[in-house]
Amino acid sequence: xxxxxxxxxxxxxxxxxxxxxxxxxxxxxxxxxxxxxxxxxxxxxxxxxxxxxxxxxxxxxxxxxxxxxxxxxxxxxxxxxxxxxxxxxxxxxxxxxxxxxxxxxxxxxxxxxxxxxxxxxxxxxxxxxxxxxxxxxxxxxxxxxxxxxxxxxxxxxxxxxxxxxxxxxxxx
Length: 172
Description:
It is found in: Cytoplasm, Cytosol. Its EC number is 2.5.1.18. By secondary structure, the protein is mainly alpha-helical. The protein is built from seven helices and two strands; from the N terminus they run E-E-H-H-H-H-H-H-H. It has helices spanning about 10-20, 35-60, 65-90, 105-110, 110-120, 135-145, 155-170; strands spanning about 1-5, 5-10. Strands 1-2 form a two-stranded antiparallel ribbon.
């Protein structure tokens, strides 16, 4: 939650949009000036939360390794949709937002650590240059950005957290 004055703004993605609109002169914009491009970015940012995250949760929570691997294969299908979205949204730039980082980059980028940990969790590489070359290249560029690299947890740390959570829930 963000408190701006005494007014709360809840949920990470909504906070990003709020900050982008409330403080337009404070750095690069996350949302484009064009209304269609803003709507498209909002759609794909919501798609991360609504489709990708819900598809990925069984990778994290699946009872067996086979359950987790099957879920990861479904995640690959969703990421293939992001491959197409990247091609359309980036306009040939390095990021979903074009030449600069935009809303979709931040929202999807916040999930990159877990996507990378998926391979160790179930044996399926979900961000794979063979199936999603544009997305894999984007992930490398985004993950290497100053400010991103320093705060993205490493795969081993995420795996340790996952093992702890699974043990607390009585999962193998």
